[in-house]
């Protein structure tokens, strides 16, 4: 299993899908206000700078960022957000970028699969010009560089957090599907049991009815035999009495 770090930088590079400037898979999210239409972001960079503008209540910059047709323009607009507070942005920036990338990878299954396929390998933004979101070294220089001289690599760390969150979501989905399947099987078994119970109950009722009918027939037959014997006895007694009286002689 490959364990070496994955270095990425430009959106046009081999691992360009990890870049904030990846433009091939725009993503749409619901607006915070229920009456507002959904918002589509061309890139994760658009989401980041839009979030930055909203954080400092710069509606003009937020709208301009959404309309920008290239992430380079977005970056420039983000640097001019009015009311900017560095300390506050430092406290919120990773959350904003994490949210944006969660939307990005959830909205593009093929990107999600590529990210999950990186396993547990370290993700490193090898930007030679950025020591905050990257490490300050280009991809071809990073492997041989001294880690002690690296920048913060915030984007790489955020992407690893996103990867873990997506993996947990996938596992939970599998567990839910198994429970649903098991529940369906148990329901099917229960239906079979109920069907068998109904069948046996029906058979018992049929046997009981048959026994009752046979009992009625026996009772009727016995009654008829008794009636016949009684009729015969009465006839004999009457004949005898008649003989004793001599009313009938042979």
From TrEMBL:
Residue ranges of region Disordered?
A: 168-250
Pfam families named in the record: NADAR
Composition bias, kind Acidic residues: at what positions?
233-250
Q: NADAR domain spans which residues?
A: 7-167
User: Which portions of the chain have biased composition (kind: Basic and acidic residues)?
Assistant: 183-199
Among InterPro entries, the record links this protein to: NADAR (IPR012816), YbiA-like_sf (IPR037238)
Record SUPFAM superfamilies: YbiA-like
Extent of the signal sequence: none
Q: What is this protein called?
A: NADAR domain-containing protein
